[in-house]
Specification:
Length: 110
């Protein structure tokens, strides 16, 4: 799992999603719900690259994700990106290992 720190890194990840699907988690470091989502995401055994950002520390990156994907910001918020678009997303308690696995089954192949 790799942390996104800059807008340029976000654009690199967005481009990578055009070749292979990947996950991006918007994580709040001060929220217990986000901590649970982060743990579920981190421990999920999926063969897809995983990225995250800390929204309080990386607000410009978070804003750019919201703008590019045209999905209203929430935290925690998990996206499965494919072909430069969010093909699946979950927020709050909907971020779980089983739902991540189902998203991979449904949307994770090229």
């Amino acid at each position: 799992m790799k942390e996104l720190r800059t807008v340029n890194e976000w654009y690199d990840v967005l481009e990578q999603s055009k070749e292979n699907p990947l996950f991006v988690l918007k994580h709040s470091t001060t929220c217990p719900i986000s901590a649970a989502a982060y743990n579920a995401f981190e421990s999920s055994a999926v063969g897809i690259p995983k990225y995250f950002l800390k929204v309080q520390e990386r607000r410009p990156v978070s804003n750019e994700i919201e703008s590019n994907l045209r999905v209203e910001h929430q935290s925690p918020q998990l996206f499965l990106l494919k072909d430069g678009q969010a093909v699946w997303q979950a927020t709050h308690y909907s971020i779980s290992g089983s739902k991540i696995g189902k998203a991979v089954e449904e949307f994770g192949s090229k």
